[in-house]
Amino acid sequence: MSKPKVAFICVHNSCRSQIAEALGKKFAGDVFESYSAGSETKPQINQDAVRLMKQRYDIDMEATQHSKLLTDLPPIDIVVKMGCNVVCPYLPSRYVEDWGLKDPSGKSDTEFLSILDQIEVNVKKLAETIRNMNLKL
After folding, report:
1. How many CB atoms lie within 10 A of CB 111?
2. Which terminus of the chain has a smaller tally of CB atoms within 10 A, N or C?
3. Which pTM does this prediction carry?
4. Domain locations in the chain?
5. With respect to CATH, is domain 5-133 assigned 3.40.50.2300?
6. pLDDT tens digits, residue range 15-58?
């Protein structure tokens, strides 16, 4: 059986959704395929996110990821909304979660790292849910 495809989405696909894609690959690559996208793109991934992901996880997001549109994704099984504070982009799927995370862009490293921690916990919980409940997709 193929692994479910999970899309982490937000408006600009430049920070939280990029972090979630990278941490999904790191911590749950054996359970699901990770993607991220938004209804708009940015020319580059948030540089604080890039720097802190390198420091904490030794992940170079710029080497393997870039800002993408929802239309760039393959068919998705699970959508995870990051917490857009606006109407979140819609993407057809069989299951949806909303993590309601605040955007750390422009905030202190402490606030940024707190969001990284939350995303790591949520990615691991999602992987466990898929494993244990055998999420029927």
Report:
1. 14
2. N
3. 0.94
4. 5-133
5. yes
6. 999 999 999 999 999 999 999 999 899 999 999 999 999 999 99
